[in-house]
Fold this protein.
Amino acid sequence: EDQVTQSPEALRLQEGESSSLNCSYTVSGLRGLFWYRQDPGKGPEFLFTLYSAGEEKEKERLKATLTKKESFLHITAPKPEDSATYLCAVVRYNQGGKLIFGQGTELSVKP
Amino acid sequence: DAGITQSPRYKITETGRQVTLMCHQTWSHSYMFWYRQDLGHGLRLIYYSAAADITDKGEVPDGYVVSRSKTENFPLTLESATRSQTSVYFCASSRQGGTEAFFGQGTRLTVV
């Protein structure tokens, strides 16, 4: 069965304290892995797409990496405005683009 | 404005009533999706559509009906609402299967 597991469930950081979020997956025929950010009361906001092991993407303080079994979202010197829930999702080949989501990591960055 | 919009943003309905949630996208994306988000379950796929007049079930389709007569619209209907359908519903679209999906702002539905 396809499974996406994110850890930790919640993470509290001080401003400037770098850390990483993990997304491990068990999927047959992975086509792509996606990272989203979700703020309270809003829809998920697309951040990154990763298609191949070894691939990396960066945007401001965020960097996403992918291996054959997991992905990491590295947050460098976070700011309070980075506080949100970060969601990981995968899509398989020949599955109509259906995203399978993890439960998310709730990140809180204190000043 | 370009993008994906859902309506209404908030809805309260009674058990047994029919409710339709609307979703409209301006990108001419082929794929559209309906998800529900609940505490403890995360985002779960209800139905999706690869093109106009093509729809398929997701993980939790029971009690829901969809249609897609036009590429830009993908309404979700609860035929006879139940309390277990109280949730936040998100519509999404993607250019093609396997590419990033973009989400609407959500509809918070309460069934009393």
Observations:
- The CA atoms of residues 30 and 51 of chain B lie 5 Å apart.
- The mean pLDDT of chain B is 95.
- Chain B touches chain A at residues 31, 33, 42-45, 48, 50, 56, 58, 90, 92, 94, 96-106 (CB under 8 Å).
- The longest strand of chain B covers residues 42-51.
